[in-house]
Write a structure and sequence with these properties.
By secondary structure, the chain is mostly beta strands. Helices cover about 0% and strands about 65% of the residues.
Length: about 375
């Protein structure tokens, strides 16, 4: 089985307070593009909207609608800081709970850093007001930096959201809500001026409100390591290994162990661009009587600033993901999305986003 999705949307954002807010459910973070004031508390309020010609993602009898969102938020940091740390890109269909890799944080801290944030996205539908809902995301991180060579960071992400229409076993009149909790411990050590070591462990728990999606509830344990070599001051090479143990609450056939191996590069060639590219291999070994999967995996992230007012982000990936449809074992996801942002005024910006997604499902389909 195969699913394809195209997304093109134009969003307008008004920064009423502060400098940042999460303004769209599919965005994983609000970027610190245009600066902000140094401080401990950073409240914000964002407004956005988009129109779709197929709200419920149906093959026929398509319904169009306009959707508006109000997004209050608050982030705080001790000691005070200007910029908001990058949000953890959580997603419920990825083993381990992470949509994309986190780029290495190059910020220099004091002995410690405490950070917390909360954002609510209140969605209002014009024609189908019964579908109004509120998504919430909260993050917290405690960083400990006992010396210039050592980093220890503990973080937690709480994600309260709803599946897209047409996903899994839900129908348009069913509110397929879920909660995800991701806890991560990361340690890093600079072995030499050019060689860095990193280890991480994480736990992801996914729960659904409705019984028709109970088969997707699971717990993921992730352990990994990374070696980074500084080829030049603006170019790093790295090797990475990741192990993921996925345990489903009700369907033992889908329990699996994944071993992932990557080689990649990160760069910050100029002040205008930063990126990551990695290529690797994933062996997914199912515990039940299910055929194992072996796939090549690819991920690319690119941020480019054309001017102080204009910036672009491009993401692309080829990953094995968990299934969202009963009777299938998993899916191979190909995804490309681009995000162009322009600042009209000091606290008003526009956002144009386009994306393409293709899922190839594995296993027999149960009708």
């Amino acid at each position: 089985m195969r699913k394809r999705t195209w997304l093109i949307s134009l969003m307008w954002v008004v920064w009423l307070i502060g400098a940042q807010a999460t303004v769209y459910a599919e965005e994983q973070s609000a970027e610190s593009l245009f600066g902000g004031d140094r401080g401990n508390w950073h409240p914000s309020l964002g407004l956005s909207g988009y129109w779709t010609d197929n709200l419920f993602n149906t093959a026929d009898n398509e319904k169009s609608d306009y959707v508006a969102a109000v997004s209050p938020g608050l982030w705080l940091a001790f000691p005070a800081r200007f910029d908001k740390p990058a949000s953890v890109p959580t997603v419920n269909n990825a083993a381990g709970g992470m949509a994309y890799s986190m780029m290495d944080d190059m910020t220099e801290y004091g002995l410690y850093q405490i950070y917390a944030s909360y954002t609510a996205d209140l969605f209002y539908y014009d024609e189908y007001s019964d579908e109004d809902f509120t998504a919430q995301k909260a993050e917290a991180k405690l960083g400990f930096y006992p010396g210039p060579k050592t980093r220890i960071e503990l973080s937690h992400v709480y994600d309260d959201n709803r599946e897209d229409f047409g996903v899994g076993e839900s129908s348009p009149d069913q509110d397929d809500k879920y909660t995800g909790n991701l806890t991560t411990l990361t340690t890093g050590y600079q072995l030499t001026p050019k060689l860095n070591l990193q280890a991480l462990g994480s736990f992801y728990k996914l729960d659904y409100d409705e019984s028709f999606s109970a088969f997707r509830e699971r717990e993921d344990w992730t352990f990994g390591g990374k070696i980074t070599f500084e080829l030049t001051p603006k170019l790093d090479l790295f090797g990475e290994y990741e192990y993921v143990d996925t345990d489903y609450d009700s369907d033992d056939e889908l329990d699996s162990e994944e071993n992932k191996f990557y080689a990649g590069v990160t760069w910050s060639i100029t002040d205008k661009t930063r990126g990551l590219a990695k290529f690797g291999y994933n062996n997914k070994d199912y515990d039940g009587d299910v055929s194992d999967e072996d796939e090549l995996q690819l991920e690319v992230q690119l941020d480019y600033r054309f001017s102080p007012k204009t910036a672009m982000r491009l993401n692309a990936l080829r990953y094995l993901n968990e299934t969202d449809t009963a009777g299938t074992t998993g899916r191979l996801t190909h995804e490309v999305n681009a995000d162009l942002r322009y600042q009209l005024a000091q606290k008003v910006s526009t956002n144009l986003k386009a994306g393409w997604l293709n899922d190839d499902y594995e296993g027999d389909i149960t009708v």
